[in-house]
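User: I'm preparing a small set of examples for a lab meeting where we compare how different chains pack in three dimensions. I only have the primary sequence for this one, and I'd like the structure in token form so I can line it up with the others. Please keep the answer compact; I'll paste it straight into my notes.
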Amino acid sequence: MSGGMPAVSALPEIERRTVAKVSWRLLPLIVLIYFIAYMDRTNVGFASFGLNREFGFSATIYGWGAGIFFLGYVIFEIPSNLLLERNGARLWIARIMVTWGLVAGAMAFITGPVSFLTMRFLLGVAEAGFFPGMILYFTYWFPRRYRARVVAALFLAVPGSNALTAVISGALLQLDGVLGLYGWQWLFILEAVPSILLAFVVLALMTDRPAKAAWLAPEERTWLEDTLEAERRNTVQTHGHFTLQQALTDRRVLALAAIYFFIGTATYGITFFLPPILKSLKLTDWETGLATAVPYVVGTVGMVAWSWSSDRNDERRWHFVVAGVIAMLGLIAAGPMLGSLWSLTAMSVAAIGLYGTKPAFWAMPGEFLSGPAAAGGIALINAIGNLGGFVGPYVLGWLKDATGTYEAGLYFLAACALASATITFLAVRPGATGAGRGGTAGRPAAATERVRPETV
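Assistant: Understood. Below is the structure token output for the 456-residue chain.
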């Protein structure tokens, strides 16, 4: 290991000032956007209470509907990310937000299983490319030393959104009967509005590249562009120049995709089924919302701590492996505790592990991909990984119908978390890339040890 990151006070003034400006300008907006996107993606977990009463959905049908979102997402993800790279993030992200808002609101008017499955699929199509687009966008604006933390900032929207969605959705379900609409209809309609409104905020505030950032001083733009360009050159010198086709077939990219598939399966299985699992505690809709928020709050704290440790130690592999094992242990412990408040404690432990894997993981692709190769490679990783968003809910729902309990499903998700940790341990190797920190930023480049994905 290298000696870790230098203290903040040791960084050049221009670096501190530039990164602070970029962070305050972009991160709050991006986190808020992803927060709203995740709310529209996962609020079906709370709507399921009313949908199941209204249409008699089985756990299998619900799990199929929750997961089919990701089939639409996966099919259109790579084309969407390539269009973002070509046309710029500002217009493309605004387009995504408007279309997903319209489809999310239209969920209120489903009439049965067929329309439910259709609208969930179309919601995935509408949102395709948003998350990998943001990961790619970070490579345009943040030097490598900051990326685990900015990814963690983005992922704050996930447990944070799940926690707040739990509270808000529980409250919106109480509107049942107002203006002749069911509570689940109000939930879909009102939670879709912010995404459409925020599209106009994106058009006003988001900037495609540092060269267009009039809100940065000339010397700050120069420092940032020079630093990022030096890192891109170093990436090409160290790992070679990847074409888009090479990135889509590179074994390191495929290894990362497999890792993300398994951790995604475990994560989304819990995301969509935690509300009905906790409903078995005989809680009201409102109490279920509050209880569901607890693991996500705990997971948020763990994720932030994990990201700072990963960046400070310039280490990704072991941070992912340990987090994956923690997730596995929490899910295994939750199985025999179902029906008691102890299951909530076990789920909170699992959430620390599940969300702790994310910052370390998404710092890895940028270590060897850049340009269009990064756009395609990151999209492929996320696309394959998000197939886990289909597999997790579907298998969990099927096992619930087959066994009458969620216990077997939790053990399946625990096995997926272990698989992701095992592949990471075997397929990701620490290696000295010679990547200098700072490049042309005005301080000497120092050889540092980085985690470099290599398949065995």
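A couple of notes for your slides: The longest strand covers residues 428-432. The CA atoms of residues 26 and 405 lie 44 Å apart.

User: Perfect, thanks.
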